């Protein structure tokens, strides 16, 4: 108890100081954008050209609000329950898009989301629900395109729902084929797995026949974990062979295992649902873990320490339960969440992710305002993926600045000889030097464009310093360019 009280004291101290603490210059700021049941999007069906445009406009409004609050990562749910939000030769379009399973909404939602995220300097990670396939109703609605109808040998019925069986021969091949479609056909920044585990009440999962056939005298728990481990290894190795910069991540249960500090931890990833994400990090088969840490106090802080201690240098981004602010979901205070942000920043987290997007943008208990005005008040670069690459890009030439009407046009050129895609960070200062290590100097980051227009106040005269750096898709930043000084006058000179 004494240790726990000390821990709470540290968190309180961090929270009290948060208003005065400079946010990190590099961190992941993510949301899960949930599409199942239209929880976050889409709220309206695309049944004709006008409603298609309205559906797209709704997504753009969501991304605009996230960008305004300096989020930099979107986990966009593209696979729901054996149906998808992209043009697939394997699974049907999700019913949520049009009201009818398999019907095209008239555009490709994943391609659209990627383009709009990149336009705003944010990354888009394709979020897959891995094993669940839904109820009998889902299967009937999907008809002949249903996974259950097409691959009955891979599916199991458990507690009123269908699941792909992690132990069935062919399940890994099937899931890998879905990943291949996305990685090869879309400019995604990451592949993110959810429900990559055995379901609730997993001990009763009906895989006894498969276990007898391939268990090789292993304990059942070890065999089940190994089924998922093999899948993760195959997917990770494939992704890195095709597009090494595409990050592989997942959202396991928030408590990895029962630790000495909390021996009665309840539901855990390792013991309860046969996930072993710490092994995925230790063997280099994951780039980021985003554990669903929707708990408070002693069920959060010690378990985050456990994740960080086992990370092997990979990114630990705690998933925070924004939905828990709702009265019917826990009625947490805003400080319950901000304490967790403070703790993660201080004790080795690489950022945070929020579930769900709706509670963030709905400003539940002031969350959006608190993030925008305080915790995320400056932009943030993404942490470097140094285990994947050590290549440093050259510097662009200095920025060209010209006044165009009521705007300043900033432009630069991609470094010569570089074929790979780059993103850019524009630094600025109103003084005689740029503080490159301070986030207040980040004018924009993550942009793929080489032109930027800035609205300016033409009433006051002042000088600006600008500089630009290039980063690889592994988030490794090169040296900034030479600085450009521009004096803004009331009169165009």
What is the CATH homologous superfamily assignment of the largest domain? Answer: Glycosidases
Approximately what portion of the residues adopt beta-strand conformation? 15-25%
Q: How many runs of DSSP E, i.e. beta strands?
A: 19
Q: Over all CA atoms, what is the radius of gyration?
A: 24 Å
CATH topology of the largest domain: TIM Barrel
Any guess at the CATH architecture of the largest domain?
A: Alpha-Beta Barrel
Low-confidence stretches: 1-18
- Please give the CATH class of the largest domain: Alpha Beta
Largest sheet: 9 strands, parallel
Reading side by side through the largest sheet, how are the strands ordered?
A: 10-9-8-7-3-2-1-12-11
Distance between the termini: 69 Å
Q: Which structural class should the secondary elements be placed in?
A: alpha/beta
Give average pLDDT, whole number: 94
What is the overall silhouette? globular
Proportion of residues in helical segments: 25-40%
Number of helices: 15
Overall domain count: 2
Short synopsis of the structure:
It contains 15 helices and 19 strands. It has helices at residues 2-17, 49-68, 95-98, 109-119, 136-142, 147-150, 171-185, 208-214, 220-242, 269-272, 277-282, 301-309, 334-346, 357-361, 367-375; strands at 28-33, 73-79, 123-129, 132-134, 155-158, 161-164, 190-194, 247-250, 288-289, 315-316, 319-320, 351-354, 400-404, 407-411, 423-429, 442-447, 451-455, 462-471, 484-488. The radius of gyration is 24 Å and the shape is globular.
């Amino acid at each position: 108890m004494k240790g726990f009280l000390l821990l709470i004291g540290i968190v309180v101290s961090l929270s009290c100081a948060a208003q005065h603490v400079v946010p990190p210059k590099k961190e992941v700021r993510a949301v899960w954008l949930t599409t199942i049941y239209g929880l976050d999007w889409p709220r309206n069906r695309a049944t004709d050209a006008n409603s298609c445009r309205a559906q797209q406009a709704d997504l753009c409004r969501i991304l605009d609000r996230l960008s305004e609050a300096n989020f930099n990562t979107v986990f966009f749910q593209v696979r729901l329950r054996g149906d998808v939000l992209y043009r697939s030769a394997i699974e049907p379009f999700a019913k949520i898009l049009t009201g009818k399973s398999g019907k095209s909404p008239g555009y490709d939602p994943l391609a659209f989301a990627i383009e709009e995220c990149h336009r705003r300097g944010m990354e888009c990670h394709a979020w897959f629900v891995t094993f669940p396939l839904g109820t009998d109703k889902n299967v009937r609605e999907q008809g002949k395109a249903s996974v259950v109808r097409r691959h009955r040998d891979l599916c199991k019925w458990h507690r009123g729902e269908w699941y792909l069986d992690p132990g069935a021969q062919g399940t890994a091949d099937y899931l890998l084929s879905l990943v291949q479609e996305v990685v090869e056909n879309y400019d995604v920044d990451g592949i993110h797995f959810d429900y990559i585990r055995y379901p609730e009440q997993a001990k009763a999962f009906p895989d006894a026949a498969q276990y007898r056939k391939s268990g090789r005298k292993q304990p059942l728990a070890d065999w089940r974990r190994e089924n998922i481990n093999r899948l993760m290894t195959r997917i990770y190795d494939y992704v890195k062979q095709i597009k090494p910069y595409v990050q592989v991540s997942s959202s396991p249960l928030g408590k990895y295992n029962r630790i000495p500090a909390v021996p009665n931890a309840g539901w855990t990833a390792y013991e309860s649902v046969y996930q072993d994400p710490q092994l995925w990090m230790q063997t280099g088969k994951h780039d980021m873990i985003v554990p669903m840490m929707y708990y408070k106090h002693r069920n959060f802080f010690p378990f985050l320490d456990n994740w960080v201690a086992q990370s092997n240098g990979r990114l630990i981004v705690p998933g925070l339960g924004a939905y828990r602010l709702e009265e019917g979901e826990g009625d947490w205070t805003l400080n319950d969440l901000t304490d967790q942000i403070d703790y993660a920043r201080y004790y080795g987290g690489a950022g945070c992710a929020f579930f769900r997007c709706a509670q963030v943008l709905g400003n539940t208990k002031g969350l959006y305002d608190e993030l925008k005005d305080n915790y995320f008040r400056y932009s943030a670069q993404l942490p470097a993926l140094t285990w994947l690459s050590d290549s440093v890009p050259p510097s662009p030439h200095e920025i060209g600045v010209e006044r165009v009407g009521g705007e300043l046009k900033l432009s630069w050129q991609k470094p010569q000889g570089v074929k790979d895609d780059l993103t850019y960070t524009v630094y600025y200062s109103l003084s005689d030097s740029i503080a490159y290590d301070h986030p207040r100097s980040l004018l924009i980051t993550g942009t793929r464009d080489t032109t930027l227009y800035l609205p300016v106040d033409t009433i006051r005269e002042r000088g600006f310093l600008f500089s630009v750096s290039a980063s690889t898709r592994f988030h490794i930043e090169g040296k900034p360019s030479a600085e450009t000084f521009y004096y803004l006058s009331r009169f165009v000179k």
